[in-house]
Amino acid sequence: MEKILVKNATIIDSGSSREADILICDGVIEKIDTSIGLSPSTRLVQADGMYVLPGVIDTHVHFRDPGLTHKATFGSESLAAVAGGVTTVVDMPNNIPATTSIEAFEGKCAIARETSAVNYSFMIGATKDNIDEIKKIDVKRVAAVKLFMGSSTGDMALKDDEALETLFKESPVMIATHCEDDAVIARNMAEAREKYGDDIPAALHAQIRSSEACYNSSLRAVKLARKTGCRLHLLHISTEKELELLKDEVYNAHKKITGEACSHHLFFCDEDYKRLGNMIKVNPSVKTAGDREAIWNAVISGRIDTVATDHAPHTWEEKNRPYGSCPSGGPMIQHSLLAMMDEVARGRISIETVVERMCHTPARLFQMKNRGYIKEGYYADMTMVELNSPWRVHREGLLSKCGWSAMEDRMFSSRVRMTMVGGRLAYVNGCAMRAGGEREIEFDR
After folding, report:
1. Domain total in the chain
2. In the list 152, 306, 325, 337, which could disulfide-bond 85, CB 3.0-4.6 Å?
3. Residue 25 belongs to a domain with what CATH number?
4. pTM of the entire structure?
5. In a domain, 438, yes or no
6. How many CA atoms, within 13 angstroms, populate the side-chain half-sphere of residue 89?
7. Any long-range contacts for 353-356 (C-beta under 8 Å, 24+ apart)?
């Protein structure tokens, strides 16, 4: 059994900070104490002067495998993940073929088992016709049901009222929704084409995929959840108005309707289209500075429960197409934690709250077994962050296969120095690798 001793760690966990050593045995945290002796057979990792956090759990990624591997693979994007302090991901179903069956789910598990540098699970996608398949899923293995209530990358939108209500009544696991109203978007797009033809500016994305489109769809999902008692998770909330649909309380096991913020809605606003154009074309759209501020306040207060990335790579050539033919989405997973740490340094949010939204709550909300905390008996998924170590993002340092980032040329005030997955080192001072400790997530349901 491999043993590792992390010495002199400043551990951020469960709302507090403490100085301690961490002894890891065969991938699991065996002991946490103020002073643990080093035995001859134990590997030493010095953590002096650094924060040791639970590994980030990103419950919203699109690693593009299978079928879209010219954009990304599970191998490439999981390496970008460990470089960003992420140790666990939940991947979305809009692949080719779409993950709408147990067979397709097993196929994705097989890919991740062979290539992933992080722990993994998947959502199964909802369609008008697959409710019987959804009812057969193993609730200990499937993270959630992903419901597109509006069209996005890949046409998986489910709009039929009867099919929606059946899904909300009979899903054996939480439903996670992409909420946009296609009718509103189509109207706005028609108006934009009438005015601009094929030369629609990227800045109009916020008006085409508007606040109205998001709120109408989110309200519909919430009404269905309240009617049926279903567990609902509203993904990538992008508007201030949608926050009215969430209760202003910290996540607990009885909270039936929860919400997610994504990195691009926290770190960009519509003013940034002038500089970044299609690089921040995402669905739902990046909206106003006021929306961004409201989402930040909701993350801090706990009205929004989790922070994820919606990491969704496309090739540089695809993103340089005209607005109308440019796909939505972009890479974010390598820099999401560090962007949050910048806000810690500025005093906007506490490091304990960052850990709560990015590590603890995702584990609890999805009911992941022995993940998301630095506790004895839990898997040793951890990241080590060095503060006051400024650096600039350069293209050659990007690990996503697409090779670009809206964060390029940004200065960060801290660095990820080490990421450990299942008790094995997956990232050390600029070098990312498969660790060998990666596992399919088990859900404690």
Report:
1. 2
2. 337
3. 2.30.40.10
4. 0.97
5. no
6. 30
7. 353/299, 353/300, 354/307, 355/12, 355/13, 355/53, 355/54, 356/15
